[in-house]
Amino acid sequence: MTATVEQEKATGQTSGSRGTAFVLLALGNVFWAGTYTAGKIALRQLSPIELNTLRFTIAALLLMPVLIRARHQIPLDRRSLFMLAQLSLLGFVLNKIFEYTGLALSTASDVALLIATESLFTALLSWTILHERVTRSGVAALIIGLAGAYLIVERGFAPNLGSGGSMRVLGDLLVILSLLIESAYTIKGKTALAQLSPLLITSATIVGSLFFWVPAGIAAVAHSGWPHLSLVSSLAVLYMAVIATVIGYWLWFRALSLVDASAAAPTLFIQPLLGALIAVWLLHDTLTWATLLGGALIVASLLLVVRASRQPPLTPLSEPVP
Prior knowledge:
The chain has helices at 2-33, 35-42, 48-69, 78-105, 108-115, 118-128, 136-154, 165-192, 198-224, 231-256, 261-264, 270-282, 289-309. It is an all-alpha fold.
């Protein structure tokens, strides 16, 4: 009987931890959803390089005390340092370069739609690289969530990708590449959690990205002059640095220490859902039936993931059902 009580306690703790993880994931994606509007405001007066330099410099300054205080926890062997360098390069340098370059060449409709596919890349990489369990509920949640994101962005069943010719296609490919890199950052970060805390990973990788962004920012200022920011643009940069970068990425990795990356992936669909609502509110975009239906599908996708997390693992798709 004692064993049964202990087992129930362990099960309750696990269920509680997973519930907390999904709350953290949802909150982090809510913060990230605001970066679309904040980024558009900031880019009125900043180039992509200037924006990213300011964003990650402010974030690094806030996280530097954490890194200094916990520096003895970072293994100094070549393998660990190389892992952190990879995370910085994947998550905060290459990803941002390709994303903003692709946005400049493509259309907002294309990019918003493609961003929703990051969850697919994250789930697929976690299944193939981390060998996490593939479940029917996980696959179904991804499909339903992607369908919802498609309806929100395209506002109907028929594709509406706009025009732009070969340059638009190149922009789309660059955005897809940035999302694949971002997903690889998530998977690499998941493996790094075995050695470092979520806050330390966030701090080290953001500070590490300054080895690229500071020289790039100096070159941009030397070429175009010092940017003059309005109060609104300054607040937008601060939001992206403090809320979206420091807090958002910490919440993401804290949650990944409790759940599989494939289970966390569908929560990324919150971004196009909430991003669309923010655009309706602040940019006066039109709210259509497709937006409402897409939002309902995304909510259904999230509920499916949360419900599945409270149940025993289902039979993997790679194994025959008896």
